[in-house]
Amino acid sequence: MAKLKRILKKNSGRNASGQITVRHQGGRQKRFYREVDFKRNKRDIWARVESIEYDPNRNAEVALLVYEDGEKRYIIAPAGLEVGNKVIASELAPLEPGNALPLAKIPAGAAIHNIEITPGKGGQLVKGAGSVATVQGKEDDYVLVKLPSAEIRRFLPECFATIGQVGNVTFGAQRTKNAGVNRRRGRRPSVRGVAMHPGAHPHGGGEGRSGVGLKYPKTYAGRKAVGRTRKKNKYSAGLIIKRRKPGKHQRNLK
After folding, report:
1. With a threshold of 0.70, does the pTM exceed it?
2. Disulfide: which of 6, 58, 162, 185 matches 114 by Cβ 3.0-4.6 Å?
3. What does pLDDT average to in each consecutive run of 10 residues of the chain (254 residues)?
4. Domain coordinates of the chain in residue numbers?
5. Fold that domain 32-171+230-251 belongs to in CATH
């Protein structure tokens, strides 16, 4: 039986040469990484929920499952799942929170999460605390799903998804009490670009509080930080029925 926990190595945003490649990381506390079963590939075997646990690596809680053959696995805990409940991953599974089914077997209007994009690869979408997607119906050889971003997208009917909304729904309402909370999570302080000198950031320089001072915002590396940055020829472009709702920085664009 594979180990369910291992010490998560700290890289602090540095590569093999020690250079910082991701800013604002470092200083977090030592933590264990839980091997979460996103694939749900242990099919047609019932499992009992032994515990609902906090996971320091994600905002959702995880549920420890004990299968009938004695194997243990972690899954993302959906809202409503309690200790002692039984779950299963099967094409004939009942529509109850924690059960995994292919999209072809899930009726329209059902709430789902942990959705596969490629069959057998494991869930890649809708895994954050409180997030939920909704099955919209079927179209030709695809299943339509409305994602939390309001994007409607086609999925292959054999892709697996888990029933229910991701638990820890109130996570978004939590407030950071002090700066030390973020430091222990591994988040180093972030300085605004407009407060820097022009050699350190494209937004820097100017007399007083002059703001960005550019035609459009840029990252510290000089790339555009506004508008749609998604690749036009991305593989999944033809699978999107309705684009996601625009962000605040995009609503005022003309």
Report:
1. yes
2. 162
3. 87 95 94 96 97 96 97 97 97 96 96 97 97 95 96 96 97 94 95 93 91 89 83 88 75 54
4. 32-171+230-251
5. SH3 type barrels. (2.30.30)
